[in-house]
Amino acid sequence: MTTVEAAAPAAPGRATEPLTHATGWSAFKALLARDAYVLAHNLKEFLPRTLLQPFLLVFVFTYVLPKIGLGIGGSVTLPPAALHLMNPVQLAAYKATSTAAAAAYSESLIAGVIGSVILFQGIQAVALPLVQEFGYTREIEDRVLAPLPVELVAGEKIVAGALQCLLAALIVFPIAAIVPAAPIHLHITWWVLLTILPLACLMASTLGLTFGTIFDPRTVPMLFGVIVIPITFLGCIYYPWSKLSAIPWLKVVSLVNPLVYISEGFRAGLTNAPHMSLLAIYPVMLAFIAFLTWRGIAGFKKRVIA
């Protein structure tokens, strides 16, 4: 008679957990690698959408306007007749003052432009693809079949979007050195820049996840027309938040805009321009990231189950 020996039961929590963790980590990396592969093969779309908007902003405000003689950054442009009446010393002082004002404005604007690029990239890299995946492509069904909790599938979207935001910001930096008519000199505070940059990328990516779970293909135009455009124009891109003291109600209302803290954070890290206190910027950015992560993952799970 043949006897069959029963295999000894595996110790609970020993043999299965490492395998589960390893499988989940491999699946997470595979999803990231897939997104990186798609990005690498769509650079002809990624680069124009990343570079065009910041290039036009910097080109118009820091090159075209100074070249055509319009005052910028608080400088006063005098008519040619008045310039002819100045002696050489007065003319040199006027030109130096105008150049310094234009350079100061350009430095402040560059910080806002980088913030807007990161925000736009977070929406374009996370929200718009997610709207399509939940909509007509139904690609999300393939993603949630990965051996990962649904929360980590949403987390991979956040990480992939944040990495694209970081890449977009690094691509835009050379515009600051090439385009402005008046030479600008960024005053970099490295510890601020190196901490604000990842926080800004995470905030934009979590915002993209939240928008992607709220809107569907039919309401995407409303996303840009009703939400993204007001966020951009009132996000302290073109002016420091401190200058809004002349409009007290707007200064208070703008505090609910996440782009304000991104723009002010980059002003603190890149320039000597007036900026919001870092004691306010960091806690609010962390609070936004925590809230948007929670809201985005909750919305993602609800859309997947539905």
Detailed description of the structure:
The chain has helices at residues 16-40, 43-67, 80-84, 88-134, 140-143, 150-178, 190-214, 220-233, 248-253, 258-270, 278-305. It is mostly helical and 306 residues long. The chain has one domain (25-305). The radius of gyration is 25 Å and the shape is globular. The chain starts with 15 loop residues before the first helix and ends with a helix. 35% of the residues are buried. Residues 1-19 have low confidence and may be disordered.
The poorly predicted ranges are 1-19
Provide the domain count.
1
Q: Helix fraction? A: over 70%
Head-to-tail CA distance between termini: 56 Å
Q: What is the 3D shape?
A: globular
Q: Main beta sheet: strand number and arrangement?
A: none
Count of helical stretches: 11
Order of H and E elements: HHHHHHHHHHH
Beta-strand level of the residues, as a percent range? under 5%
Structural class: mainly alpha
Overall strand count = 0
Mean pLDDT: 80
Radius of gyration: 25 Å
Helices and strands in order:
Layout: H1 16-40, H2 43-67, H3 80-84, H4 88-134, H5 140-143, H6 150-178, H7 190-214, H8 220-233, H9 248-253, H10 258-270, H11 278-305
Helix pairs in contact: 1-6, 2-4, 2-6, 4-6, 4-7, 4-10, 6-7, 6-11, 7-10, 7-11, 10-11
Structure, briefly:
This protein has 306 residues and is mainly α. It is 72% helix and 0% strand. The protein has helices at 16-40, 43-67, 80-84, 88-134, 140-143, 150-178, 190-214, 220-233, 248-253, 258-270, 278-305.
